[in-house]
Design goal:
Blueprint (H helix, E strand, L loop, with lengths): L17 E3 L2 E3 L3 E7 L4 E8 L8 E6 L3 E6 L8 E7 L4 E7 L8 E6 L3 E8 L8 E9 L14 E4 L5 E7 L2 E6 L23 E2 L6 E5 L4 E7 L4 H6 L7 E7 L5 E9 L4 E4 L10 E3 L6 E4 L7 E4 L4 E4 L5 E5 L8 E5 L6 E6 L3 E9 L16 E10 L3 E6 L4 E6 L4 E11 L2 E9 L7 E5 L8 E6 L6 E7 L3 E8 L6 E5 L6 E6 L2 E7 L6 E3 L11 E7 L2 E6 L2 E6 L5 E5 L7 E7 L2 E6 L5 E9 L5 E10 L4 E7 L2 E6 L3 E6 L10 E2 L6 E9 L2 E8 L3 E7 L6 E8 L7 E5 L6 E5 L5 E5 L7 E5 L5 E6 L9 E5 L2 E7 L5 E7 L3 E8 L4 E7 L12 E7 L9 E2 L4 E10 L6 E9 L9 E9 L11 E9 L3 E7 L2 E6 L2 E8 L5 E8 L5 E7 L2 E6 ...
Parallel strand pairs: 3-90, 11-15
Antiparallel strand pairs: 1-2, 3-89, 4-5, 5-6, 6-7, 8-9, 9-10, 10-11, 12-13, 13-14, 14-16, 17-18, 18-19, 19-20, 19-21, 22-23, 23-24, 24-25, 26-27, 27-28, 28-29, 30-31, 31-32, 32-33, 34-35, 35-36, 36-65, 37-64, 38-39, 39-40, 40-41, 42-43, 43-44, 44-45, 46-47, 47-48, 48-49, 50-51, 51-52, 52-53, ...
Helix pairs in contact: 2-5, 5-6
């Protein structure tokens, strides 16, 4: 498809912040991943990595994260053993079993030509088992030309003697692995005791060498299984045999055999001299994969092109099958040790079982004496899975499908068919990749953004909705609850009841036992004509606290039992639940607080007694009691902690920050300790650590959660192992213990607006639920699991590649292509799908014309019309044309508003034919801006009957204008090959003129404007860089005036006409899209000087082909950047560099020539936030090192708090 004609498919000094055009710009940026890459790029199983049992599954996700799992022999989910980030992008993963070893090693190849050998070290006194480095090396070649039309090829000899690498055109490199220490092969933690000083340097040992290969294009390579016995019988040395698959200019496929002479450092055609067969053989057209066959059979499988062929040990074709994966990219995994069964799939997701058996017996055989002509191949279709990148046979008739184009799956094979498949899917691993496009919207207008991605490919295509925060799963709701002053639950009244307080009285709503509907419930013992301050249950009684007293009633019939009244002339001001009763505060400056204990009597009777009394000399504003302590907020901006047990003395008062009055308080056990939370009237939340024995407070912290008073409610998690705190207000929030930073608090936004009251309502049939009052609605529901990112999926069954949000109609418009349809007439057909933003229901698709594909979409309101249009740009694709010669620009208008959650229908309002493919569209000054092939065009809507689009002006100096961004009159153009340029719109002409350009070459994959003169770009080699224009890059501001008699300087000589790189880093992610927005509104510190908190100037959200979602946040100053850089470097000292891959080398910019450029201007947030996950000992070492370098930090806790602020951005 033309929109995928991108580089990854085919390719040939610090300054200050500035305020320009209303933008505060910064060239110092903080790069971080919010959602790690989810695409599985490599998988191997079974392995004897952690033990001598073949029970390990090794997975690489996104190319940068290595994970080891232990797979049970009796089924069940795999258990995680370890996971670690790699300072490199893994492009090859092989298992290495050295001779005489009972355990496997891991052999990795990275995109920067590094080879790493890892082993698993068993658990010792330093902690759990871990991966350690055995050997490292580099395959860097000074004169080699990197292959651009295929990924690197990597293979390892089954006997562990050598590995082969093909990264440069025409250059085959061999790595002799005999230098790996023998002690490292056992996987024992006692390697140090045997004198192994450290990793072996394979490059220094001289065991990496290359040989020129003049053969046609290489498609695949693999090592064959050993023929040592046959070679010994012939009196020849046993050498590793390498098989390669080639294609010539006429697409004729050839397989070749090579012999690797490790001593002579040469690779020669053919096997041993005793072989009578040729060293090459022609194979079927479309073949794309080579798979070695284990002994005793030996030989080679050639797969692809809807066929499979087996070549025996003499390289003669012994069997073939004319079916199998139709796509050219086939994947295979050996099923059993005998090598007579394989699982095979291609990029279409069709899963096949391949059997190699003897024709005589009709069954699988392991006889070495079978004649070559007796073999036959049998292919059986098993079903449809996610398009796989890797297949691995686990155990007990189960398999793993690792996918980069859909969700990864765990399969269980059974005789019974399900949905036409001969297996069941036991478990899936969510994968967002490849993210081709995305939009960021706040559908519910609650201040909580969602990232909606076009994810997956083929039949695995879907929309994914990502939300940073916590969602509420609504179980039921009622309208008409305006003016609610309080909400409490009485779980033993009826089937469960809710008490609601109003200024004019109190209402009780309850469930009938076994019922599901709330209804009015009589409460004869309650004072229903008064405002209620508190309702609770204690000692088998239901208590109602009003301003005139406390009523105790029977929970069965709510009949009155006893009433307590305050002293004459006093009224109750505030009340809170206490163990066995309630704590009440009387009005007045005396600040009298009483602890009332309810005592149940026989036959439904009882009484109330005053257990303790305090006089605080200040009026009370809020109360909360727990664990024998009572927190009291005072109108004098102070806090007191009172012990409820007899004889204990109260603590002194604690001052509160600011001038706002405390409105709510709550004790809760979070992050391993008792904490006290106090919500102030201005939306500030104050927290303390509490000493339970004495009530002493320490480590005060304050953050802004909103602007309104809040109510605090502790509640238990679903797992029941810890508590959370819900904070109401204009920005509802859940406070919980951080999963990454032990002992730290984390804040998760809730997708509700203006929650005023909350109460637990854990009754059947609403188990684990809470009741909320929000915007005059009473709602019952439960929370999602407390985690950083929540994902919802809308399956589409076809490949989505463009998305736009139409706010007026409340729909997502999604452009799809039906790739791989069963009906050939529908294959490749494009359509527009409309998805309701709230209900996520799909409408009927709008089919595009034959051979028409959508390239760009946006919503726009144009001059002279209040209608919000959906603009769609397309291209008519002819396979014979190098680029589309014709396209369309269509404006769709909604004919009605969305009703009942269904998407609104759209009709064509205007249409224009263009001479090329529309790659980008966006609204611009009441007009429509777009790119058509190499031109940037501005269109205007002409009103009339009919309405039509008219071209206003254009600019055509690009190779292929793929990306557009605009701010003010400035337009940023991202080109396919010529990097970025800046245009300016002049209304006087009107005209578009180029005013600046990046003179370097870069294949851009995404662009975004950080300001009118500062830009962020991503290229196809996984790099990010920032461009600044003229004075922003340090050039003089003064205009250049020509001298008399001289011509004026051209644009290329004007410093203002240059876009210069002021920052760059290697991200390791292929960034497909960027958009200026935020993932989560950060919780900012209160009462802290502005310089002490990290508030970004601007934020850009990015998404990658591997399913990663992240942020680039612009920092405010050079001082902030330097401080974070120092912390980053200190963390790097304590973070283990697996495989000797250093962080600085990893972030250096990768160039096509292979020469790295130093990274600058970016802080690596992934490394910096690794501090939160480190053991306490390493955290202390980081703090000590920073102090030794003169960096002022407030100990370990202060450093963790500083880094946690940055983590809250996502």
């Amino acid at each position: 498809p033309f929109w995928l004609n991108r580089p990854w498919f085919k390719r040939p000094s610090l300054g200050g912040s500035r305020r320009l055009g209303g933008w505060t710009m910064s060239r110092w940026n903080y790069w971080v991943t919010a959602q790690p890459a989810t695409a599985v790029t490599h998988a191997i199983c079974p392995l004897c990595l952690t033990s001598t049992e073949p029970s390990d599954l090794v997975v690489v996700r996104g190319g940068t994260r290595l994970e080891v799992f232990r797979v049970g022999l009796q089924g069940g989910s795999p258990s995680s053993v370890c996971r670690l980030p790699i300072h490199g992008r893994v492009c090859g993963l092989q298992a290495l079993r050295p001779a005489g070893s009972s355990r496997d090693l891991l052999l990795l190849l990275t995109e920067k030509r590094q080879v790493v050998v890892l082993r698993f070290a068993d658990a010792d006194d330093q902690g759990a088992g871990r991966l350690v480095t055995v050997a490292t090396g580099s395959t860097q070649d000074a004169v080699g030309r990197m292959a651009v039309d295929h990924p690197p090829f990597f293979a390892c000899d089954p006997d562990g003697r050598a590995a082969a690498v093909y990264m440069y055109e025409g250059l085959l490199q061999v790595v002799a692995l005999g230098a790996v220490p023998a002690i490292a092969r056992c996987g024992s933690a006692a390697a140090e005791e045997a004198g192994v000083a450290g990793p072996v340097d394979l490059s220094a040992a001289g065991v990496i060498y290359g040989t020129q290969d003049a053969k046609p294009q290489l498609l695949d390579l693999t090592f064959l299984y050993s023929t040592a016995p046959a070679a010994a019988a012939a009196g020849e040395p046993a050498r590793p045999l390498l098989a390669t698959l080639h294609s010539d200019c006429q697409d004729l496929r050839t397989a070749r055999i090579w012999s690797a002479d490790l001593e002579a450092r040469a690779v020669t055609p053919g096997g041993s001299a005793s072989r009578s067969s040729s060293s090459s053989v022609a194979v079927k057209a479309g073949a794309s994969r080579l798979v070695p066959v284990p002994l005793p059979h030996g030989g080679l499988l050639v797969l692809g092109g809807s066929a499979a062929a087996y070549y025996d040990g003499t390289f003669q074709r012994a069997a073939s099958a004319a079916c199998g994966p139709a796509k050219v990219s086939a994947v295979a995994a050996r099923v059993n040790v005998g090598g007579v069964k394989w699982l095979i799939s291609g990029s279409d997701g069709e899963l096949w079982l391949l059997r190699l058996r003897t024709a005589a017996s009709g069954s699988s055989s392991s006889s070495a004496a079978a004649a070559p002509e007796s073999f036959e191949l049998v292919l059986e279709r098993l079903g449809l899975v996610s398009p796989p990148r890797a297949l691995a046979w686990l155990a007990d008739d189960r398999a793993f499908v690792g996918s980069a184009m859909g969700d990864s799956q765990f399969l269980c094979f059974s005789k019974a068919e399900m949905d036409g498949n001969r297996f069941t899917i036991e478990e899936t691993w969510m994968n967002l990749g490849p993210v081709v496009d995305f939009c960021i919207v706040d559908v519910d207008d609650q201040g909580q953004n969602q990232v909606v991605t076009c994810s997956g490919a083929g039949h695995a295509g879907s929309l994914r909705l990502l939300r940073i925060g916590v969602g509420v799963n609504e179980a039921g709701s009622l309208d008409g609850f305006a003016g609610v002053l309080g909400l409490w639950a009485l779980p033993h009244v009826g089937g469960g009841a809710l008490a609601l307080s109003f200024a004019s009285g109190t209402r009780l709503l309850a469930l009938q036992p076994g019922g599901t509907e709330l209804q009015e419930w009589p409460a004869p013992g309650f004072s229903c004509d008064e405002e209620t301050l508190l309702c609770c249950e204690a000692q088998g009684l239901a208590l109602q606290v009003t301003r005139t007293g406390v009523q105790a009633v029977n929970v069965k019939d709510l009949a009155a039992v006893v009433r307590w009244a305050p002293p004459k002339g006093s009224r109750i001001q505030v009340a809170a639940v206490a163990p066995g009763g309630t704590v009440v505060a009387l009005g007045g400056a005396a600040g009298e607080v009483m602890f009332l204990r309810a005592v149940a009597g026989a036959e439904g009777g009882g009484h109330m007694e005053v257990a303790r009394t305090w006089h605080l000399d200040a009026e009370v504003s809020c109360l909360h009691a727990r664990a024998g302590l009572c927190a009291v907020g005072l109108w004098t901006h102070e806090l007191r902690v009172l012990p409820l047990r007899a004889g204990a003395e109260p603590s002194p008062s604690w001052p509160l920050p600011g001038t706002a009055v405390p409105r709510s308080a709550a004790f809760a056990h979070l992050a391993g300790r008792l904490r006290l939370f106090v919500g102030l009237g201005d939306g500030v939340l104050v927290t303390w650590d509490v000493e339970e024995a004495t009530g002493e407070l320490s480590r005060r912290n304050a953050v802004h959660l909103g602007t309104r008073p809040m109510q605090l409610l502790p509640f238990g998690s679903r797992a029941g192992d810890e508590e959370h705190v819900f904070a109401t207000g204009d920005r509802p929030m859940i406070i919980h213990g951080s999963a990454s930073a032990v002992g730290q608090l984390a804040y998760a936004a809730v997708n509700l607006r203006l929650v005023s009251h909350i109460a637990p309502f854990d009754v059947a049939p609403f188990a684990g639920c809470l009741a909320f009052v929000a915007e005059q609605r009473l709602m019952v529901g439960n929370f999602d699991e407390i985690q950083r990112v929540h994902v919802r999926t809308v399956p589409l069954g076809e490949c989505p590649h463009r998305i736009a949000y139409h706010k007026g109609a409340g729909v997502f418009a999604v452009a799809c292509q039906n790739v791989g349809a069963a009906d050939p007439r529908q294959a490749g057909a494009a359509s527009l799908r409309f998805v309701a933003a709230r209900s996520l229901t799909l409408s009927e698709a709008v089919r595009m014309e034959p051979r028409e594909l959508v390239g760009a979409m946006c919503s726009a309101v144009l001059d002279g019309d209040s209608t919000e249009y959906l603009a769609v740009g397309s291209a008519f694709v002819n396979p014979e044309d190098p680029e589309p010669m014709k396209g369309r620009l269509v404006l769709y208008a909604p004919t009605a508003s969305a009703e009942n959650g269904e998407p609104a229908p759209f009709t064509v309002a205007a249409e224009l034919e263009v001479t090329g493919a529309v790659y980008s569209l966006l609204p611009f000054r009441g007009m429509l801006l777009g790119s058509v092939n190499n031109r940037v065009v501005l269109w205007k809507l002409c009103h009339g009957d009919p309405r039509r689009l008219r071209e206003v002006c254009c600019h055509g100096a690009s190779m292929m204008a793929l990306h557009l961004r605009a701010e003010g009159n400035h337009i940023l153009v991202g080109d396919l090959m010529r990097s970025a340029s800046l245009l300016e719109y002049s209304p006087a002409g009107p005209s578009l003129e180029e005013i600046a350009r990046d003179s370097s070459s870069a294949w851009l994959s995404a662009v975004e404007m950080l300001g009118e003169e500062l830009f962020l770009c991503a290229d196809d080699t996984h790099n990010l860089f920032t461009l600044a224009r003229g004075t922003a890059a340090g050039a003089p501001v003064a205009a250049v005036r020509p001298r008399a008699g001289h011509r004026s300087r051209g644009p290329a000589e004007d410093p203002r006409a240059k876009l210069e790189r002021v920052g760059q880093m290697h991200s390791g992610e292929f960034v497909n899209r960027m958009q200026r927005s935020v993932l989560a509104k950060p919780v900012t510190a209160a009462g802290v000087p502005e310089a002490g908190s990290f508030t970004p100037v601007e934020q850009v959200v990015w998404a990658s082909t591997d399913g990663a979602i992240g942020l680039v946040a612009s920092l405010r100053s050079e001082e902030e950047f330097v401080r974070l850089s120092l912390i980053q470097d200190a963390v790097s000292r304590e973070a283990p560099a697996i495989g000797g891959l250093l962080h600085g080398d990893w972030r250096n910019v990768l160039t096509e020539s292979g020469e790295p450029l130093p990274h600058r201007g970016f802080v690596d947030g992934d490394l910096l936030e690794l501090l939160l996950e480190m053991p306490r000992k390493r955290q202390q070492a980081v703090a000590v090192f920073l102090a030794s370098q003169g960096v002022v930090v407030d100990g370990v806790e202060g450093l963790l708090h500083e880094v946690e602020q940055l983590a809250r951005l996502h």
